[in-house]
Amino acid sequence: MPKQDTSNMVDERFELLSLVFRLAGREEYSDVSTGYQQTLVSEFVKYKELDAVTYAANLPLGYDAVFKLSVHMRKEGEQFALIDDIDSLVEDGRWTRQSAANFLKLLNDFYAETGFAAFYQSNLDFYKAETQLFIDNTYSGIDLEWFGAYVEPDNLRCVYSPSSTRNNYGATVNDTIVYCAVSGNGGASTHRQWYQENPEFKKWCDATIDPVKLPSYGNGQIIAGEYVTRAYDTLYYVEHGYVPAQLLFAEKRNGFPYIEEVYGLITPYEKAKAGDDKIKRILGVGYTMGDEQSLLIGSREIRWQVLSFTEPLPFLFVQTEVGHIFGSNTGDVLYVEDTWESSPFLLIDLGGAGLQGKDGFRGYSRISIE
Q: What is the pTM of this model?
């Protein structure tokens, strides 16, 4: 299969579907933070009552299922059709052969009535310019050769979407072509095999289902795909200088409690054991602790110590919050225990006087220690 033409990574199929689900009110496709997205709304809002939009609004799916349908479509003249083999589209149960066929008929009607083809063609120069910016700023920094151990490089396809700026998606077409929307994917068919043949892996996936925390992952097979994708994402970053424990703890906070076990299926990684130094495991370097300081706020007690390190810190994957009680300096790393928190955590002082418009507040990157 020929390599992807990277002069324009904006895929007409996905842009069309993103527009329909935007008009259907799907939050994940409703960003209006750019001029292009505002143009989409102003140009096409008058078509929100068309049958394709109504059908999409009543489908019990969204997020990557929309992208997944797009890569199982092909252009035939001025219409779209499903590819011959759509087993990989219907495997997880979100799309059925009937629902995909029914929707595609309405989608073609929408495509013709709205004149979307002309809109897409009129924006080709914009798409090519955006593609080049994406290549310069992001795509050129991806180590594509790394993926060669897992998938034929010529079968990788990257889709850049200016209409969908909130999420990244991955999809595989029958274990042959691996697509990613904005960011990468990995482990093309592993999750299906493990879910069917590895009872322990299946148990982890089924136990992770949570309609509240993970509403977009409705069954164990979808969860399986997420676990394997996130495990390979972690492996990519680890092999490019990051510390595995940081990445895995972040995935736990994202709602995937068995990510360490899944990561251990593709690497020699071992989970932390009782008595392990979790701080050193997370940060990847040795350290010493300074004197303990404390603060009482009513019944709440907060204690912290500043850490010093034996070598420079590696890259950190963290979340950000604000605070102003520690008296720390930019770059300080604090070990914090808070009686209002279930476990200790690390804070890295990012500085930022006047952060969020409040004088005296500082930004902190936070890493939980579980």
A: 0.61
